[in-house]
Amino acid sequence: MQRGLLPKEFPHAAGLSFAAHALGLGAVTQPVVNLVISNVGSVPGERYLGRSRLVGTYPISMIAEPPGLNVTALSCAGHMDFGLLANRASVPDPDEIARYCGEAFERLQQAARRRKVRS
Length: 119
Hints:
Layout: H1 10-22, E1 35-43, E2 48-49, E3 52-53, E4 69-76, E5 79-86, H2 94-118
Parallel strand pairs: 1-4
Antiparallel strand pairs: 2-3, 4-5
């Protein structure tokens, strides 16, 4: 069975979310969606503008009501960069999430290196 790009429930959740917002139910109900994650496809090889090499990317997406957090990842030339966009009303300290993401990514890299050494 082939999976689509989105879970089949997503259109229903998005519809409920927009309907609840349009009807003003956000004050009395919990949000249907509170996090959006995007993984932008990889860009193979290094990239240049003239003779200047691209050393980092800063992925950014959009944030709409009601999700309070959008996380976008982009990989380019062996680097994985993350962009976090937060609504301060929903996520009062997005810097804390960014620190935790960085720490988790470091642990993942260390585990991958240990596994590579064992192979």
